[in-house]
């Protein structure tokens, strides 16, 4: 009677990284996508209604382990019908759903196109996942769909409502698809600490598939109001995905992040070049070069932590397998 | 050649809780049953003999994770034949097997009918699971069956036999079933610390299915003899499970705990009302109200920890799915 | 489209152990083999090429849990063809591949034949697994095959190359099989600390199956050069596996370890007797006696830690099940 589907994705590479005068050669994981092992299923309840669930753990291919307490990628249970679906648990945030597909590499771990996902002096509302989320996803109607989430905070016992609300937030994403064109807009916000600090991200993204190349662009604005003052960060990424053979694709991505406000500014820009070679639908070889140019007090890094203002770069070759 | 069965149960709800002047709204999990992912199987060895195993981990639906080190719900391997079954590993205690089915909600997480499972000033012998257990379960004969377990303690190297025995214990349960009637009796005891302290639980329980309602009752007595003096706790629960439609069931449960002895007494009573609505055999919607009235030094709580003597209450709505 | 195979092995026993004046009776696990739950699969990529992966976690049968962070037995992804296979991740070391099959019990947890795997005053290059390993395994040609691994170290950011190289190492194993005869030779070495210390193991092993008995022998030499001086350890094991019935096998193993060098010497020898009784191809009952005689400053133990020079012994009975 059980109908569990086991699935997964494994991604490992060897990389050489430079960060100012530091350097490192080593084995890295989860570049194109996060390595995972998952269990999911559904039950038909009649009248088009279904129960659905997903339990998904990260797996560290290089050193073993699960990146935390296990089953922290996705754990949710819910119902799905013609009206959409509602799910409860630890889930992807609406901002992630809106923005991640519009980075040209598909959100590779070290692409410069993910500078909007960094936290510098300014915290961001764009967390990939949140705990304790109730989420609604609409069906697609005339190309439009909605992804909306609300999550509770720590909800500790306290008479102070700021303390109780810590971690609480919401996100709302609208998406549109029409032939070669796709776009999204999102707003997401949560309470960052027990004194009422708040971080939010607003974003807009789009893509157009010209056939010879698919062009991508996204823009986000983070705002933080907190006990340490206020700040703002503007980030954008532009890129292209270019089929170069029946099985090969080049993705190029440029990203930039500019912070302003009362805190020190941690600005950076960078460019990345990825080549993906499909051995099959499920198995891909890849190689890539990525570079970030830190400015001011910024010390964004990959595995190494550079000095403020130092340039970092990485070159890698790896394999991804889905099952 | 392999014959692994994957199974699981997921349970998530939203709840509002009050504890004296404290309050909390949030997402909670594992109300009707503990959320889990399991792997089990058996091998036919001929002559009616089978090898059997179960590996079962808790899964936290709200925040991800596995509630501890993983695979801590059940891990055992054993043999089963016409003579019964013998298993070794981390397993449910005989007292749990005896008492849990005789609480009207089936042992829901926040039912008042589980006050006998609380630890106040008096420790209890009624732990749900023990490590290092050798367990024997008899076949059912004329309605009677037996569940017996012995578990070793930490068994640290020491010349002091009290130190060696810490954690060691045993449980013995007799069960009887005959048509609408079922009953059980249990005794369970283990050594709580390295100075020879001991906690034990004796219990008796029964149920009768009248068709319009199934009535439940259970009574337990905990005794603790330890370095901090001796104490006793008497708990009972009565309840009823009432089918109200083809797919709907109401369960009502009343529980009470009274402690006595040299320690401060932590007494309480409470009442709970659950409604379970089956969307299918595997998927259930539920809503419930539960309330505990602490007395004396008692501060039994759900997610919130109340002040001593404060009343706590919770209202919730959720979904449970088996696979 | 997915082709995941779930597999596992569970092994639990009850044991009584003595170590000088200390004694302990308890439940132990993973005697004949490590208890595990695994997920593996492959994808045919055409032209004889395959993608292969394995994710394998330890499972603690006695107390639940996964022995560490989970999935720390094996996690790798790779490609396999007529030219052999290359894999990346956390994997068995070449020395383990060379030596483990040539101990008469098959590398049981408490056999005296594994004294070469102990660390006394002298660290060894023979670790069972290493993180961050790139491994090549050749196909078998005229009975010969090769298993070669290289692994990166911590690779922390530093201008000091010794710090960067900590943990880095390699192993190389040659194996030969011809009818009843099999043999292996191995060399393995890694950098043990941030000041350039190095431990290495060289080993040779062989077996011959006479039908009435299969004889085993192995010899290893550990060398350590480090900040605390240099040392050497010579270990050997001889043993026999004797079929005593259609389903029963006796394995006897003798092992010895002798350390020399600037550090205190921790020498020992011991003997073990195992009886394995197959209930089926997948399920085995076993009983065993094992004894180690520590000499000098050695305090090698099983679960108990003896005083230096004390003799330890253990007697056990258990069950192993594969699925």
Can you tell me the CATH topology of chain A? Porin
**Order of strands in the sheet with most strands of chain A:** 1-3-4-5-6-7-8-9-10-11-12-13-14-15-16-17
The CATH architecture of chain A: Beta Barrel
- What is the CATH homologous superfamily assignment of chain A? Porin
Work out the radius of gyration of chain A.
20 Å
At the first level of CATH, the class of chain A is: Mainly Beta
Structural class of chain A: mainly beta
Total number of beta strands of chain A: 17
Integer average pLDDT of chain A: 94
Q: Oligomeric form of this entry?
A: homotrimer
Layout of helices and strands:
The structure is a homotrimer of 323-residue chains.
Chain A: E1 5-19, E2 22-29, E3 36-46, E4 49-58, E5 74-81, E6 84-92, H1 94-99, E7 129-137, E8 144-151, H2 161-165, E9 169-178, E10 181-191, E11 198-209, E12 214-226, E13 229-243, E14 248-261, E15 266-278, E16 283-296, E17 311-322
Antiparallel strand pairs in A: 1-2, 1-3, 1-17, 3-4, 4-5, 5-6, 6-7, 7-8, 8-9, 9-10, 10-11, 11-12, 12-13, 13-14, 14-15, 15-16, 16-17
């Amino acid at each position: 009677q059980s109908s569990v589907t086991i699935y997964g994705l494994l991604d490992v590479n060897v990389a050489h990284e430079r960060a100012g005068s530091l350097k490192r050669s080593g084995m890295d994981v989860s570049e194109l996508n996060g390595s995972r092992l998952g269990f999911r299923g559904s039950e038909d309840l009649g009248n088009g209604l279904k129960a659905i669930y997903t339990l998904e753990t990260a797996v560290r291919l290089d050193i073993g382990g699960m990146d935390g307490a296990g089953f922290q990628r996705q754990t949710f249970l819910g119902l799905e019908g013609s009206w959409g679906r509602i799910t409860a648990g630890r889930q992807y945030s609406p901002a992630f759903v809106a923005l991640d597909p519009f980075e040209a590499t598909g959100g590779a771990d070290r692409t410069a196109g993910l500078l909007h996902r960094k936290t510098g002096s300014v915290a961001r509302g764009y967390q990939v996942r949140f705990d304790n989320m109730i989420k609604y996803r609409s069906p697609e109607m005339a190309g439009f769909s909605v992804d909306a989430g609300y999550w509770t905070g720590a909800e500790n016992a306290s008479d102070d409502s700021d303390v109780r609300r810590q971690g609480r937030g919401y996100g709302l994403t609208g998406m549109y698809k029409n032939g070669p064109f796709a776009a999204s807009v999102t707003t997401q916000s949560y309470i960052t600490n027990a004194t009422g600090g708040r971080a939010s991200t607003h974003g807009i993204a789009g893509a157009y598939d010209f056939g010879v190349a698919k062009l991508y662009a996204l823009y986000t604005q983070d705002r933080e109001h907190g006990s340490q003052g206020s700040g703002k960060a503007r980030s954008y990424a532009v890129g292209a995905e270019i089929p170069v053979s029946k099985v090969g694709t080049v993705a190029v991505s440029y990203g930039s992040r500019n912070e302003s406000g009362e805190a020190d500014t941690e600005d950076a820009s960078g460019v990345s070049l990825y080549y993906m070679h499909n051995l099959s639908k499920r198995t891909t070889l890849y190689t890539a070069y990525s570079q970030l140019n830190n400015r001011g007090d910024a010390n964004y890094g990959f595995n190494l932590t550079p000095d403020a203002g130092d340039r970092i770069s990485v070159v890698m070759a790896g394999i991804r397998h889905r099952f």
